[in-house]
Amino acid sequence: SAVISQKPSRDICQRGTSLTIQCQVDSQVTMMFWYRQQPGQSLTLIATANQGSEATYESGFVIDKFPISRPNLTFSTLTVSNMSPEDSSIYLCSVAGYRSEKLFFGSGTQLSVL
Amino acid sequence: GQQLNQSPQSMFIQEGEDVSMNCTSSSIFNTWLWYKQDPGEGPVLLIALYKAGELTSNGRLTAQFGITRKDSFLNISASIPSDVGIYFCAGQLSPNQGGKLIFGQGTELSVKP
Q1: Hey, which residues 22-61 in chain B have their CB within 8 Å of chain A?
Q2: Dihedral pair phi/psi, residue B91, rounded to 5°
Q3: How many Å apart are CA B33 and CA A9, to the nearest integer?
Q4: What gap in Å lies between CA A19 and CA A16, rounded to an integer?
Q5: pLDDT tens across B22-52, in order?
Q6: In chain A, which residues have their Cβ closer than 8 Å to the Cβ of B43?
Q7: Which residues of A touch B106 (CB under 8 A)?
Q8: Is the pLDDT of residue B2 over 70?
Q9: How far A29 CA sits from the closest chain B CA (Å)?
């Protein structure tokens, strides 16, 4: 499995500010995804990060709120924009393994918005 | 939309006991995955199942892909304190349904030494 490094591991942010989360993988991967895990909840897919093109967002998530970059096959960023307390969650980067259905996750970013 | 019903939501057991949890859905899945999440960490893949009826073991863990392709279970035998965590099932939809992974709500396991 790939080694996925995600940072920051946690942050406390003020309402109205933005935070960019970085995800670095130790090998080239085809598929990279961003998930959100709200407190005590399961994982919800935010978007698929596409290399060289705009991310594909799931219903309920928009690019203005969660802009994503993926400049190459090993790196992606997720920005949480104009944050509110409702954005307090764990944000997780994941990559698809050899069989694309097998996902591996980074350690996550614990975000608290005051 | 598609949903996975994972049960139980939580379990409190004694060290050494066996544990069983399951996921069911009204949708058919091509693949079932089971993950464990420790506090402050991302989910770690435990077992992947690719065929209906498949039974796969990973140490003390055993998981099965239901014959109807709509359910899966995970068993943990002889539990130990480090088994504590949240266990998630995930099912992958068929390509013509988007091929996405859908996650269950999780089973929180507590093990008393």
Answers
A1: 30-31, 33, 35, 40-45, 48, 50
A2: -120, 140
A3: 25
A4: 10
A5: 999 998 898 999 999 998 899 999 999 999 9
A6: 43, 92, 105
A7: 42
A8: no
A9: 17
Phi, psi of B14 (to 5 degrees): -90, 145
Q: Which residue of B has its CA nearest to A59?
A: B1
pLDDT tens readout for residues B6-25:
999 999 999 999 999 999 99
Q: Which amino acid is at B19?
A: V
Q: How confident is chain A (114 residues) per 10-residue block, as mean pLDDT?
A: 90 97 92 92 92 91 97 95 97 81 87 96
Contacts of A37 (CB under 8 A, 6+ apart): A43, A44, A89, A90, A91, A92, A108
In chain A, residues with a C-beta closer than 8 Å to the C-beta of B48 are 99, 101-102
Question: Hey, CA dihedral for B64, B65, B67, B71, is it positive or negative?
Answer: positive
Tell me the nearest-neighbour CA distance from B87 into chain A, angstroms. Answer: 10
d(CA B103, nearest CA chain A) in Å = 6
Which residue is listed with tokens 């694309």?
A: A100
Using a 10 angstrom Cβ sphere, with 0-12 exposed, 13-18 middle and 19 or more buried, the burial of residue B82 is exposed
